[in-house]
Specification:
This protein is an alpha/beta fold. The protein is built from 19 helices and 13 strands. The strands form two sheets. Strands 3-2-1-4-7-6-8-5 form an eight-stranded mixed β-sheet, sandwiched between helices. The protein has a five-stranded parallel β-sheet with strand order 11-10-9-12-13, with helices on both faces. Its main location: cytoplasm.
C-alpha cells in the first residue's frame, strides 16, 4: 500500500512549473494522495495545472506571503501522514514517485524527514560562472526543501516554517534544526531531482547579500554553533567586514586630511577587493562579460553584505522561538460567533456577530482548521430539542462554514458529564477527531467556562467578553481580546 503522502509545490508562476507538472504527470510509481500547488503571487491569472496523470490537484493562494508562508499553507492544507516539498524549478527523475514511496515506507517513528538527492547540471563546454558554481552547491547542501519530505505531525509540533525568514534562504535550515531539537532524525533518501541553473541578470550576487540579515536571525535562534549543526559554511563575511572597514577608514581619513593614512587604507581596500574579484574570476570562464560582472559586483558586495548584517543585528536583537499558527481554533457559538439568544432553537435567530465570517475566512486562508464547541443545556432542560440544535448548527455552517468539527454538549450543569464546559471533553474530542494536539489548539469564547475548558484540555484560551460576562471571569482570563476580529488577529500574529 502506498505511503500516505501529499506533494506540496510553492510557486511564483515561473514557466518551470509547467515542466515540473509535466514530469509529475508521467512519472512512474504509485501516485501520492494529492498535489497542493501554492500560488505565492500577489495576484495574477489562474495557474495552468491541468495535466492528465497527476494526482488530485488543489491550488491555494497566499497573496504573496513568501516561501515560508507558502510552504506552511501547503502542509496545513494536507491531511496525510507525510508532506513532500518540491520547488517549482526542479525536474524529478522518471521514477521519483516510486523512490519517494520506497524512501518513506517503513521509516522508524523517530525519523521526521527524508531529503532527496540533487544534481545540478553545469556546462560541459566551458567552466561554470560564479552563479552556476553557487547553484551547484545545492547538490551537497543539507535539508534543503527543493526535495524534502516531512511527517506532517513533525511540522505541526514545531509550528512549521518560521515566517520571519522572508526569502528562500535559511528557512529550511531553521526548520531542520528545530525538528532535530525535538529528538527526531532526518535522513537522506535515494530519489533524485535535477535542479537546473536558472538564468539571472548580472546583479543577482548583489541582491542575495540580503541573506546576511537572515544569518543573524539564525544565530539568535540557534546559538553560535548553528552553522556547524546546519552544515552551513561561514563564507567571506570576515573579509567583507575588513574590506568595508578599510573603505570607511579611507573616507574618514580623507575628511581628516591625513593623506598617507588615506593611501594606506585605500590600498588595503583595493587589495581586498581585487583578491575577492580574482577568487571569483579564476575558476570561471574568464570571458569579458563574466570578468566585468565580477569586478563590479566584487566592489559592491562587501559593503552591502556588511550593511545587511548590521541591519539584521538591529532588527533581530530580541527574538522569541517560533511558535507559528495553531493547527485548530475552536469557537464557542452563542455570544462568540453569533449573538446570544438564550436557548435558541430557531435557525432564523442565528445571527453572526460583526466580522465573524471574515475572521473565520482569515484563519482558513492560512490553513488553520476551525470548529465549534457549544454547551446546549436547553436540551437537558426540555426547552429545545436536539433536532432544533442541529438545525441551528446547520444554519451556522450555512452562514459561517464550513467547520471541520462541531461538538455539542446537550447535558445540564448537574448531569456530571465530561463534555460540558468548563470540562475539557468537547475540546479533547475535537482534537481527537482531527488528529490535532491540544497544545496546538486555541479556544475562543465569551465566558470563563470556555477558557477553563481550554486550560483543562491543555489548549490555549482567549476570552472575548460581552456586556454580560462576569467581571471576575474577565479578570481571571489568561488572554483577552475586545472583539472576535481582534482575537483572530492575535492568533494570526502568533499571540496565542
Amino acid at each position: 500500500m502506498p505511503v500516505s503522502c501529499t506533494v506540496v509545490v510553492p510557486t511564483i508562476g515561473r514557466p518551470s512549473l509547467g515542466v515540473l507538472l509535466d514530469v509529475l504527470a508521467t512519472a512512474e510509481g504509485p501516485r501520492p494522495a494529492g498535489l497542493v500547488v501554492v500560488d505565492d503571487r500577489p495576484d495574477g491569472p489562474p495557474l495552468d495545472v491541468d495535466r492528465p496523470g497527476l494526482p488530485p490537484v488543489r491550488v491555494v493562494r497566499t497573496g504573496g506571503g513568501g516561501p515560508a508562508r507558502a510552504r506552511n499553507l501547503g502542509w496545513r492544507t494536507a491531511r496525510t501522514e507525510w508532506v513532500a516539498f518540491l520547488d517549482d524549478d526542479v525536474v524529478p527523475d522518471a521514477d521519483w514517485y516510486a523512490r519517494l514511496d520506497a524512501d518513506l515506507a517503513g521509516l522508524p517513528a523517530d525519523v521526521a524527514g527524508s531529503q532527496g538527492r540533487v544534481r545540478v547540471p553545469l556546462p560541459e563546454d566551458r567552466r561554470p560562472t560564479d552563479w552556476e558554481r553557487g547553484t551547484a552547491g545545492l547538490a551537497t547542501s543539507s535539508w534543503i526543501t527543493a526535495d524534502l519530505a516531512y511527517r506532517r505531525a513533525a511540522l505541526a509540533a514545531v509550528g512549521g516554517f518560521d515566517e520571519r525568514f522572508p526569502r528562500a534562504f535559511r528557512e529550511d535550515s531553521d526548520l531542520a534544526l528545530r525538528v532535530m531539537d525535538t529528538g527526531a532524525r532526518l535522513v537522506r533518501g535515494e530519489r533524485w531531482i535535477t535542479h537546473p541553473v536558472r538564468p539571472v541578470d548580472r546583479w543577482v550576487s548583489v541582491r542575495v547579500q540580503a541573506g546576511n540579515a537572515d544569518d543573524v536571525l539564525m544565530r539568535r535562534l540557534h546559538g553560535p554553533d548553528w552553522r556547524e549543526r546546519a552544515d552551513a559554511a561561514l563564507g567571506r563575511r570576515p573579509q567583507h567586514l575588513a574590506v568595508t572597514a578599510a573603505a570607511l577608514a579611507a573616507v574618514g581619513l580623507a575628511a581628516a586630511r591625513r593623506p598617507r593614512a588615506v593611501t594606506a587604507a585605500a590600498l588595503a581596500w583595493a587589495a581586498g577587493t581585487a583578491e575577492f574579484a580574482w577568487a571569483r574570476v579564476a575558476p570561471g570562464p574568464r570571458d569579458r562579460a563574466e570578468v566585468t560582472t565580477m569586478a563590479l559586483t566584487s566592489a559592491a558586495i562587501p559593503p552591502l553584505a556588511t550593511w545587511h548584517w548590521l541591519r539584521g543585528v538591529v532588527r533581530h536583537r530580541r527574538v522569541a522561538p517560533w511558535r507559528g499558527l495553531p493547527d485548530l481554533v475552536l469557537f464557542d457559538r452563542d455570544g462568540t460567533l453569533v449573538h446570544d439568544f438564550p436557548y435558541n432553537g430557531d435557525p432564523a435567530w442565528v445571527r453572526p456577530v460583526d466580522g465573524a465570517r471574515e475572521a473565520l475566512d482569515a484563519l482558513r486562508a492560512r490553513g488553520v482548521r476551525v470548529g465549534v464547541v457549544s454547551n446546549q443545556s436547553g436540551v437537558a432542560r426540555g426547552i429545545i430539542t436536539r433536532e432544533q440544535v442541529d438545525a441551528c448548527m446547520a444554519r451556522l455552517e450555512e452562514l459561517l462554514g464550513p467547520f471541520e468539527t462541531v461538538q455539542v454538549c446537550p447535558h445540564g450543569p448537574d448531569d456530571g458529564c465530561i463534555c460540558r464546559k468548563p470540562a475539557p471533553g468537547m475540546v479533547k474530542a475535537a482534537c481527537a477527531e482531527l488528529g490535532v494536539e491540544p497544545a496546538r489548539t486555541v479556544v475562543i469564547g465569551d465566558i470563563g467556562a470556555d477558557v477553563e475548558a481550554a486550560a483543562a484540555a491543555g489548549a490555549s484560551g482567549i476570552m472575548v467578553p460581552t456586556p454580560v460576562t462576569r467581571r471576575q471571569e474577565v479578570a481571571a482570563a489568561p488572554r483577552r481580546a475586545a472583539t472576535l476580529t481582534a482575537a483572530v488577529d492575535d492568533v494570526l500574529a502568533g499571540e496565542w
